[in-house]
Design goal:
- This is WYL domain-containing protein.
- With 99 residues, the protein is mostly beta strands.
- The chain has one domain.
- The chain is built from one helix and six strands, in the order H-E-E-E-E-E-E.
Length: 99
């Protein structure tokens, strides 16, 4: 499966972590939501590679799918953030899939 959209749909549906190259760095993401904005696909995900000061500080980042390279599924599950709601960030965004 080489299509990154299909990999992300599988990752969201099965709550699997993904690894991707983003801005030249390899990051691990817990994908919570895939949505469309102005014809482009975006991912709302928790960046597991980021050093968070506390559990309460953790929040989802938004990543343009076109900017994620070498996307790979990792055989490791994640638990969605307690504050997560399956809603796109903006009212004119279109939900594709959420956990």
């Amino acid at each position: 499966m080489s299509d990154p959209r299909l990999k992300l749909l599988e990752a969201i549906a099965h709550k699997k972590i993904v690894a991707a190259s983003y801005n030249g760095a390899t990051i691990r993401l817990a994908p919570h939501l895939l949505f469309q904005r102005h014809g482009d696909l975006f991912l709302s995900a928790l960046n597991l590679s980021k050093n968070w000061r506390s559990e309460d500080e953790k929040q989802l980042g938004q990543f343009k799918l076109a900017g994620l390279a070498t996307l790979e599924l990792i055989d490791e599950n994640f638990t969605p953030l307690p504050s997560y709601e399956a809603q796109p960030p903006r009212s004119d965004d279109v939900l594709v899939l959420g956990v």
